[in-house]
Structure of TetR/AcrR family transcriptional regulator:
Amino acid sequence: MARVGLTAERLTRAGAEMADEVGFEQVTVSALARRFDVKVASLYSHVKNSQDLKTRIALLALEELADRGAAALAGRAGKDALTAFANVYRDYAREHPGRYAAAQLRLDPETAAASAGGRHAQMTRAILRGYDLTEPDQTHAVRLLGSVFHGYVSLETAGGFSHSAPDAQESWSRVLDALDTLLRNWPAP
């Protein structure tokens, strides 16, 4: 069996593709070795184990999401920024379901601090500056937005909205309108 030019980056990208095809939970070093038609042992010089591989996929997904988010937010503010940012998450989850699941992986504090996760929080806070929120309301709003985006996307990708009218896009637009209204009229403590 040939080594086929294996690197940690190539294995991570192949693992991310596999996650999108078969689900993040199904990604293992053994499954990846079968995909490359190599012995499992030949991958261990590039990744420590399946958990290391999954962490690498999670970091890749967070980076991809952050890059898309930054591009979508450029030059936008207020509801336009909120909608663009929300659509990044929804579109990414629909295009890359396994990677999106990987982005939810719980990382150890040191790895999390070095990841693109911080960029996500910074971008969300940048959106919220357009709504004039101060602490601790800004933190509450960051958590609200993350919960709504993730909850909606998770239900939608699981087929939860496919059995009734109106279609999911109409509901998504209404959800974003409601979030914008809520943020503009954030309740006083």
Summary: DSSP finds nine helices and no strands in the chain.
